[in-house]
Write a structure and sequence with these properties.
Elements (H helix, E strand, L loop, with lengths): L14 H12 L15 E11 L6 E10 L14 E10 L10 E4 L9 E4 L4 H13 L2 E2 L2 E5 L11 E3 L7 E5 L3 E5 L2 E2 L5 H11 L10 E7 L2 E10 L5 E2 H10 L5 H21 L3 E3 L1 H21 L7 H16 L4 E3 L11 E3 L5 E3 L10 H4 L6 H17 L7 H17 L7 H22 L5 H13 L20
Helix pairs in contact: 3-5, 4-9, 5-10, 6-7, 6-11, 7-11, 7-12, 9-10, 9-11, 11-12
Bound molecules: adenosine-5'-diphosphate and the ligand O=P(O)(O)O[C@H]1O[C@H](CO)[C@@H](O[C@H]2O[C@H](CO)[C@@H](O)[C@H](O)[C@H]2O)[C@H](O)[C@H]1O.
The ligand O=P(O)(O)O[C@H]1O[C@H](CO)[C@@H](O[C@H]2O[C@H](CO)[C@@H](O)[C@H](O)[C@H]2O)[C@H](O)[C@H]1O binds next to α9 and α11.
Length: 481
């Protein structure tokens, strides 16, 4: 990855230096900040593009900045570049009350001295400018806005920022489109654009087709920065729906079955349009090595995992043993971070899958590798478990029923029931639960007991076919919503 500092149409030298103390304090508080737990010690500019000049009623800057944070060096491992974030910074003399939540701070010196800077995505005017750039296929400095010419984008749609918890930031335009602005960006082909485009080409209507997108071309590398797609009106996500049914004491089996069918449709379309490969002994051993390594890293980071490590490891070893005996698996492009929150149901009852970015913490190359479809299935199975643990009422057997219905829906469309491969399923479910433990420890410590109860079950049962719910979770504490 290039560390080159590329200045585009910046007309404010010293801009980043003057924002530095404010950003150090503001950035780590953002939900989408990936480097939680380590202080930010400084920034370097990757690109700065002036979208509206300073000094007027509103100034607007598009910044790509690396946030430097101390890291413990790993002997022999290559040094990782600091994470690069996309920021849209506005400056005004003072913020109107409606923009108070967007405040970054008051600039003490430099080109914006005396001005108030803020996260401009909260402000309709900058959001309108972004949509107009997408609509017209604009080029501004290194920023290139592109669109699918066959789809119409109406101008003057009213924007509103989505305020729910997200790994990125999204703006809805008039309930017609949604623009996802990626926050932590890396150069290369981004699966959040690549896969929906491939699925649209394949005619798969389980995924909203990208209408427009934009990227930055810097030092020969392209960074995907945002994707505009049709907004599924009146949709509820699978997580909300599942919790709603749980609160009413209702089961969710019919929806879980429909979700299984939708997942299989997407998998089959991806397998038709993008390469599939066969994983033999060597590849599966590499896969297993990755799982074991993630377990070790996770156990370093979250001490509560340590007593379970031998049991968890045996789930991975069982997979390696099957591979050594000559068993092979097919791998293909998959969603990569599938859970109930990534599924939207429109009022007509159709399920859509969104957010093909993969697990945000993994390197892009890894996220784009063909993998067994069971990995997505395991993500959904974990999600039913999460929902059951988050319910206000006890729901014995709820997750079991959903998990079984989801697998049978999947089998109905694909002809293959994921439960017929229990060793692979358990290995992926274990890998996912370990990921979740780290994710929750970092982002939502109150939720840690949810994946920990799965860890308890998976470690105890390693090597035997997967049961569906933990028999004795280590903590009954329910997460705060
Ligand atoms: N096409 C869409 N139609 C309606 N809502 C959407 C659409 N895409 C995303 N959303 C909403 O935006 C939220 C965040 O989108 P997502 O792609 O998951 O972003 P992130 O990677 O930031 O989590 C989703 O949970 C969903 O509520
Ligand atoms: O925000 P993303 O969609 O990129 O995904 C991350 O955050 C998710 C939580 O918002 C996290 O999902 C975990 O919690 C969900 C309930 O909130 C649950 O349905 C999922 O099964 C569970 O993994 C996801 O892991 C993380 O990558």
């Amino acid at each position: 990855m290039s560390e080159a500092v590329t200045r585009t149409v910046t007309t404010s030298p010293g801009l980043l230096a003057s924002l530095d103390p404010l950003l150090r304090e503001w950035l780590p508080r953002q939900r989408w900040f990936a480097g939680k737990g380590r202080p930010v010690t400084g920034f370097s500019q990757v690109a700065a593009t002036e979208l509206l000049p300073p000094g007027g009623k509103l100034g607007l800057y598009h910044l790509l900045v690396r946030a430097h944070q101390p890291v413990t060096p790993v002997p022999g491992a290559p040094e990782q570049p600091a994470d690069c974030y996309q920021l849209l910074i506005g400056d005004r003399e003072a913020l109107p009350p409606r923009l108070a939540p967007a405040l970054i701070g008051h600039v003490a010196d430099g080109p914006l001295a005396g001005r108030t800077v803020y996260d401009a995505l909260y402000d309709p005017r900058p959001d309108e400018l972004l949509l107009e750039a997408l609509r017209t296929g604009a080029r501004v400095g290194a920023l290139r806005f592109e669109r699918d010419g066959s789809r119409r984008i109406r101008s003057a749609l009213v924007p509103r920022l989505v305020t729910s918890e997200q790994s990125n930031s999204s703006v809805v335009y008039g309930d017609t489109f949604i623009l996802k602005l990626l926050r932590r960006v890396v150069p290369g082909v981004n699966p959040d654009l690549e896969l929906p485009l491939a699925l649209a080409r394949e005619g798969c209507d389980r995924v909203p087709a990208p209408t427009a997108w934009f990227h930055a071309d810097l030092a020969g590398e392209s960074y995907v920065l945002g994707v505009l797609q049709p907004f599924v009106q009146g949709a509820a996500d699978g997580w909300e729906l599942a919790l709603r049914e749980l609160a009413k004491g209702e089961d969710f089996a019919a929806e879980a079955r429909a979700l299984g069918r939708a997942t299989a449709e997407v998998h089959m379309a991806l397998a038709r349009t993008l390469p599939t490969v066969t994983l033999g002994h060597t590849q599966v051993q590499q896969l297993v090595d990755g799982m074991v390594e993630r377990l070790e890293t996770a156990a370093q980071a979250v001490p509560a995992l340590r007593p379970y490590a031998p049991g968890l490891r045996s789930a991975f070893e069982a997979l390696a043993t099957l591979a050594a005996e000559g068993r092979t698996w097919t791998a293909q492009r998959i969603h990569g971070d599938l859970h109930l929150g990534q599924c939207l149901r429109s009022p007509g009852g159709q399920w859509w899958l969104i957010d093909f970015e993969g697990e945000p913490s993994k390197p892009l190359a890894e996220r784009r590798m063909p993998q067994p479809v069971v990995r997505d299935v395991a993500g959904m199975l974990r999600s039913f478990d999460y929902a059951a643990h988050s319910a206000d009422l006890p729901a014995p057997g709820w997750a079991d029923t959903c998990r079984a219905a989801y697998c049978s829906g999947y089998a109905q469309v694909s002809g293959v029931d994921p439960r017929t491969d229990p060793v692979l399923l358990r290995a992926y479910e274990t890998d996912k639960a370990i990921y979740e433990v780290v994710y929750e420890a970092r982002h939502r410590p109150d939720w840690l007991p949810v994946p920990m109860s799965a860890i308890h079950r998976l470690a105890a049962d390693a090597g035997t076919p997967a049961p569906s719910t933990p028999s004795s979770p280590p903590s009954p504490r329910r997460p705060r919503p």
